[in-house]
Amino acid sequence: MENYTYNSIIIQLEGLNVSKGFVNLLFLLLFFSYLFIIVANFAIAVLVFLDKNLHQPMYLLFWNLSINDILGNSIILPRLLIDMLHPPSERLISYYECVIQAFTIHMYGTTVHTVLMIMAFDRYVAICDPLRYTAIMTNKMLVKLTVSAWGVAFVLVGILLGLTIRLNRCRTMIRGLYCSNAGLFKLSCESVFINNVYGLTFTIVMFTGSIGSMVLTYTKITLVCLTGKNKSLNSKALKTCSTHLVVYLIMLLSGMFMIILHRFPQYAEYRKISSLLFQIIPSGLNPIIYGAQSKEIRKFLSKWFKPQKVFPTL
Q1: CA nearest 12: which of 75, 86, 103?
Q2: What is the pTM of this model?
Q3: Is residue 190 classed as helix, strand or coil in its secondary structure?
Q4: Phi, psi of 76 (to 5 degrees)
Q5: Which residues contact 62 (CB under 8 A, 6 or more apart)?
Q6: Which residues have CB under 8 Å from 246's CB, separation 6+?
Q7: 130: part of which helix (H) or strand (E)?
Q8: Is residue 290 over pLDDT 80?
Q9: Could you report the per-residue pLDDT of 118-129, keeping only the tens digit for each?
Q10: Which letter does DSSP use for residue 132 in this model?
């Protein structure tokens, strides 16, 4: 029989169920993954900030992705690593910290979608209307789009968590690796019908808008490339768009897989793994994919890391 504790200020996280023989190996794997994500994304963010040649809409939007990846992973992985060193009964977190963690995690997932949609719009204007690109993608427009990307995510996630924190809690165990909106409202014994309706609507709107914008922009870009005779333009379009599309598909598939598994409690452990991969894989691959495909970033890195010639002194 389940014990009920109403509105407890202390929440227990279930965390990863790993056998003792694999704890150290998994800890090191996650630690170095987190270290790589932070260093790689921070390096890209600093490069874009320092080099004026990279102060272009595409790179400034990618800067937003890097900052978002740093924030999203820093709120989850360090806490998860600490919890792995403790037995399940000692994996405790305050309710307020849990809400902040859930808010940040959902902000991370939503902002990824909104920023990638804006990046798709940027590529559409650059390829389909290149003569008006500088007139459309001005600094003012870029600021408006960036604020919109973060602002829309903030409002939608704020409502999502606002509907959850209004509920009274009668349980203290969150079945997952970290705090999420679903994990929090499942602590309640009250009706969560409104939470489910808004959460489902939120997910449908986000994925429909995200996928729809990608299909629309890339269809038009493809038509321009197929009907155009400029080989250099087609090559540049293929290079930049393929990079953006790969990043989007990785994020989309890992996110959808995690959401689908959330509907099947019997696959709880698989859901934990998928939620972990949703954090690590896109965030780790973003700087690699964009860094490898960007001539400007490669040029900047080669300038800084190229061996300097030392001339002998007389």
Answers
A1: 86
A2: 0.86
A3: coil
A4: -110, -60
A5: 44, 48, 119, 286, 290
A6: 289
A7: none
A8: no
A9: 988 888 888 888
A10: G
Contact 70, 38 (CB under 8 A): yes
Strand segments, DSSP code E, in 5-136 are 10-13, 92-94
pLDDT band at 292 (very low <50, low <70, confident <90, very high): low
- Tell me, what's the pLDDT at 17? 79
Range of weakest confidence among 61-75, 117-131, 202-216, 278-292: 278-292
169 neighbors 183 (Cβ within 8 angstroms):
no
Q: Where are the beta strands (DSSP E) in the chain?
A: 10-13, 92-94, 173-174
Residue 136 has a CB neighbour count (10 Å cut-off) of: 13
What SS3 class is residue 46?
helix
CB–CB of 217/124 below 8 Å? yes
Q: Work out the average pLDDT over 186-215.
A: 90
Write the pLDDT tens digit of every residue in 27-48: 999 999 999 999 999 988 888 8
Residues 6+ apart with CB under 8 A from 156: 110, 202, 206
- Conformation bin of residue 15: beta by default, left when phi > 0, alpha when psi is -120 to 50: left
Query: CA 262, CA 247: separation in Å to the nearest integer?
Result: 23
Burial bucket for residue 273 (CB in 10 Å: 0-12, 13-18, 19+): middle
Using the structure block, give the residue that is written with the tokens 């924190």: 165
